[in-house]
Amino acid sequence: MTLPPLFRQRRPLSLTWRVIALSSLLLLVLVSLFSWLSHTTLTRQFQESRLQQHALHHREVRLILQRSEEGLRQLAGLAAASSGLGEALEADDHAAVRASLAAQWPSLQLDAGIDEIRIFDTRGEAMAHWGSAPEHSGPIQDWISQVIRTETPLTTLRCDVGCRQYAAVPVLIDGRSVGLVILSRTLADVILQVKSVSDSEVALLAASSRSSNDAVPARRLSAWQGQLLALTEEQPGLSLLRRAAERVSLDTLADGPLQLPHAQRLKELSAIPVTRIRSTDGAGYLLLISDITDQVLAINHDTRVLLGAGVAGWLAAELLLLAILLGPMARLRRVAGVLPALARGGFGEARQAIPATSKRWPDEIDVLEGTTVELSQQLERLEGEVQARGEQLAERVDELARERDFVSGLLDTARVFIIAQDSAGRISLVNAYALSILEVDETTLIGRRFDDIFPLPGHSPIADAAGAEEEERPLLTVDGRVHTIVWYHAPLTGGGDAGMARLSVGLDITERKAAEGRLTWLAERDPLTELHNRRHFQELVQAALARGGQGALLLLDLDQFKEVNELSGHHAGDRLLREVADVLQFHVGRRGSLARLGGDEFALLLEGADADRAIGTAQQCNQLLEAIQFRASGRLHRAIASIGIVQYPAHGDTPADLLASADVAMYKAKEHGHQRWHLLSTLENAKSELKERVYWVERLRKALQEDDFVLMVQPIMRLEDRDVKHYEVLVRMREEDGSLVSPGHFIPVAERNGMIVQLDRWVLRHSLQALRRLQARGISLAVNLSGQSLHDRGLEQFLAEELADSGADPHQLILEVTETAAVTDFSTARGVLQAMRDLGCRTALDDFGVGFSSFHYLGQLPVDYIKIDGSFIRHLTDSSDSRVIVRAIADLAAGFGKQAIAEFVDNEQVLPLLKAYGITYGQGFHLGRPRPLAPLLDDDA
Questions:
Q1: Out of 49, 365, 683, 908, which residue is the most buried by the measure of CB atoms under 10 Å away?
Q2: pLDDT for 142
Q3: Phi, psi of 605, rounded to the nearest 5 degrees
Q4: DSSP H or E segment with residue 485
């Protein structure tokens, strides 16, 4: 055997020093990297905290300004209500007008900081004036006209040569305006409050092309075209502001803070607009100057300390490593010296060079020496066998290469992740699809742990080697997208390759998970206002009741909301609902759970609240809604609500009872009128509920005995050719005067008192009698079954007997159950529906989509039709969410071989969309309103 050239090189570099050099380099790189990462992280966290602080200052300044404006408006209101002022204005008596507020002026000037009071009559002529007016007093006449016209107070903030808050309040006598009072004051108190809450130096800047006669030239910032009106600290604030004005504009500074070095300190400057306009003329800004030097120095100090500790640790580790390696490496060099002899075939020479093993405890090098001796003996035996087995090995390698190429071709064509792992969880094989998604080379993945490439959040379960497991893991790709991969793992048995102990197949379900998350959100939220919907709100109430304790529930109903829809259109009504939701969520949403129950009804759940707190919240809600002035189509609408208040558990121990009691209280509030809220007492609730329940129970019992029900039908139209061969049966109660009562009044009572099953049988019996006369024309009738009828053990026998007695064709009868009833007791619903189909009837799932949970069960429910809930169809033309859901339901129905019916088709515009989605039938007022069944039977005659 010939010695390879590598081993013939002289004086190779010692392995000891290689280890020392490489480990030193690695440790230094790691120390530097960790120090840099630490510094970068601290700096980023500091910048984020400053941005959060800047946003907090914005909100606090807005709140301070709002409170100041509200206080000024209240002072103006008190001044307008002064004794004798209205009569003096009506009499046009200048002296009496001035005398009415002369005694209050010193108190308002000293205690409230009022700088000026003006009184005008309805013609806009000044009747009295106190204090000093600014050089440019603003559009006084416009304010006078607006206040006199609308008879509502006006507050504003003006910044030209100075910044002042103004409040104009009408003076009313017998409900009519006889004049108005205008109060104004500067922002001095606001600046002091801002300085207190922000712990920063504060400056007030008026951006205006005009300048006051008494303006200080040194405080003029020409770059910003503004004048500094106030500055809590003259130095270094003024010079710092001049430098900032040369570098950035006011708009840029308002969007984010600016950091500037000043006098060996680092300052941060931010701007907060105080006016509604952000222009170069008439805008006002509060400038906040903060010292952030200490925080930046602390970050730098921590970085230096971390770097020093890392260098010290590196030195200590290298010295320890050197001390450990010196002795063993000397013995290792002796073993290395005999290996070239083995390479040359000098097996005996190699055994003589290695001394006998000592009696001490053997270590790894002793094992290596013994192995070297044994190796020399084996090499002598194996050298003769190499030639013969070499040829066999070459043939086997060719065969394995062909097999591997075939398997690799199969793996690379699959559009799934296919990865093989060894027993330690390291990747030993990966297909081309996985490499394309990860955008890495195969050499990068081979040998790495599967859990490092595809981490599992939380605890990762240990897979059973004898079985398969399924799990979901996130995957972050190089483009920053997070994919969700479902993995199916199975052990590889019977193979001789130890590098492939487990096969993992992954499917990308990112889009499905995103759709599920969106559907879950839609199931809990009202799509118009993004508040909780009725179903989720009832779950929140149920959870609160289960936790025990006490609380309150407020039910808000907007008065005269119907007029907004009729006068300004439904779009204006939707805008008003969104504005009401935003105001309530911002001011009272944090106190409890706020929801829109439907239409113009809102509800607020206050856990742990007593009666006083609930009343206070209701009063605040009324004040907030009164402040909303909603203008649409040239009309001014007011948001006024009637609020019903109930307490739990006193007024109910279920969500339905609480909402019913709250509804009673709300109507009481409507009757009160002036107060607009009502707290329901326990006795009042009990009497009202008992009276209502007794009346409807007796009325239902009488109607069942005397057949005081009337069947109505609504057509279900085939959209392709507008043909109607399918009607839904509806029920109405007939009063003594012949008028019809809608089912919303008696169906809930029937469900609570167990009479709904009798009512269902009455409807079925009379529907089958009508169907016998209609079936010859190919007409089908759809009858709704309540959730309680699904538990009626005699329903199947009753239906079979009625079908036989009536002679109706069971195939022309369609039985509908709601999605909620079907999913609530899935096994029972599936059994009942299958029994109905066994009788020859067809079945339908009503109100589909409101719960979203039934998507999983749809394929297992024996139904022929799916009726898509009307809440999605109603907003189909103006809601992308509704279109996505309706298309998904239509595709889902088609995939399971079921026909879809769209409910609440109220206009022609939705029909092209329904046809495009493959929906077969439609039902709604646009296609046909409910009508009595009798004329349909007469048409047959």
A1: 365
A2: 84
A3: -100, 120
A4: strand 482-491
- Enter the DSSP assignment of 355: P
pTM comes to 0.37
Question: Tell me, what's the pLDDT at 385?
Answer: 76
Q: Residue 436: what are its φ and ψ, rounded to 5°?
A: -70, -35
Q: What is the 3-state secondary structure (H, E, C) of 835-885?
A: HHHHCCCEEEEEEECCCCHHHCCHHHCCCCEEEECHHHHHCCCCCHHHHHH
| Termini Cα distance of the chain | 112
3-state secondary structure of 156: strand
β pairing state of 427-430 and 417-421? antiparallel
Would you state the pLDDT for residue 837? 92
> What sign does the dihedral 544-545-551-553 (CA atoms) show?
positive
Q: Residues in the chain with pLDDT < 50? A: 1-3, 6-9, 459-468, 683, 686, 690, 852-854, 941
**In sequence order, what DSSP letters do the residues of 21-70 get, joined into one string?**
HHHHHHHHHHHHHHHHHHHHHHHHHHHHHHHHHHHHHHHHHHHHHHHHHH
Q: Are 483 and 510 in contact (CB under 8 A)?
A: yes
Pairing of strands 931-932, 116-121: unpaired
Which ranges of 673-755 would DSSP assign to H, the alpha helix?
A: 682-706, 743-752
CA distances from 778 to 322, 726, 933 (A): 97, 9, 16
Q: Does a cis peptide bond (omega within 30 degrees of 0) precede residue 328?
A: no
pLDDT tens-digit map of 603-659: 999 999 998 999 999 999 999 888 888 787 777 878 888 999 999 988 888 888 888
Report pLDDT digits (tens) over 344-372: 777 777 777 777 766 567 777 777 777 77
Q: Residue 856: what pLDDT?
A: 59
Stated as kind and residue range, the H or E segment containing 715 is strand 709-718
CA distance 415 to 452: 22
Q: In what order do the strands lie in the sheet containing 427-430? A: 427-430, 417-421, 502-508, 482-491, 469-476
Question: What are residue 556's DSSP bridge partners?
Answer: 602, 643
